[in-house]
Write a structure and sequence with these properties.
Distance between the termini: 55 Å
Number of domains: 2
Pfam families: TetR_C_29, TetR_N
Protein name: TetR family transcriptional regulator
CATH architecture of the largest domain: Orthogonal Bundle
Mean pLDDT: 89
Shape: elongated
CATH superfamily of the largest domain: Tetracycline Repressor, domain 2
InterPro entries: DNA-bd_HTH_TetR-type_CS, Homeodomain-like_sf, HTH-type_TetR-like_transc_reg, HTH_TetR, NicS_C, Tet_transcr_reg_TetR-rel_C_sf
Keywords: DNA-binding
Order of helices and strands: HHHHHHHHHH
CATH class of the largest domain: Mainly Alpha
CATH topology of the largest domain: Tetracycline Repressor, domain 2
Strand content: under 5%
Number of helices: 10
Structural class: mainly alpha
GO molecular function, one term: DNA binding
Largest sheet: none
Low-confidence stretches: none
Radius of gyration: 19 Å
Length: about 200
């Protein structure tokens, strides 16, 4: 693919991501995406085959789960694996707020596109579940119910997405992604009994 074609394709994807996050999938037209991308409307069909394929291409090209799950050395040990996964998830949700917001919208709406979203999201949470199981088997993690432990880990990992609820209490506090990720991981590991208090 020529450089200009690649640029057009990426501009369309980035424009779609921005608009889907802001207006929702159903509230965004192909024409709006192309206007935002400064691209000919025919390029959506040429490169992707329609709006739904643009949506799918966002995840194929921009969702970080594959990179995260390829860190095999770090994912063998339950504690280090949990650190790697949770840190990566938090950093992604802060660094790419638009794509993270799209994930959240589609899951909350239980849209027709939720299947696509879950194809990319579920492997991450499956890995976290495996790490919880392995940690419990090895006596590193201590919890009663695996479903409840996984639910708590998921909720704590994504809790920062609700900062608008506490902004009035901490109006001048900026979230520093690395610090938030480290503190959340430590909080989770303490809750699982893997870090001494």
């Amino acid at each position: 693919m020529e450089h200009s074609e690649l640029d057009n394709k990426m501009r369309i994807l980035l424009s779609a991501k921005k608009l889907f996050a802001k207006q929702g999938y159903d509230g965004t037209s192909v024409r709006q995406i192309c206007e935002e991308a400064n691209a000919n409307i025919a390029l959506v069909s040429y490169h992707f085959g329609g709006k739904e394929k643009v949506f799918e291409a966002l995840f194929l090209n921009l969702f970080p789960a594959k990179k995260l799950l390829e860190m095999n050395d770090l994912l063998q040990d339950p504690v280090e694996g949990m650190r790697t996964m949770i840190h990566g998830i938090i950093k992604f949700t802060i660094a790419d707020k638009e794509l993270s917001d799209i994930v959240q919208q589609e899951i909350m709406l239980e849209s027709n596109r939720m299947r696509i979203v879950l194809e990319f999201v579920n492997p991450m949470w499956s890995k976290v579940k495996q790490l919880l199981e392995k940690g419990k088997e090895e006596g590193v993690f201590h919890f009663t119910s695996l479903p409840q432990a996984l639910l708590m880990v998921i909720n704590l990992s994504l809790a920062h997405k609700k900062t608008c609820l506490i902004e009035k209490f901490f109006p001048n506090d900026d979230i520093i992604p690395d610090i938030l990720a480290e503190q959340t991981v430590e909080f989770i590991l303490r809750g699982l009994g893997a870090v001494e208090r």
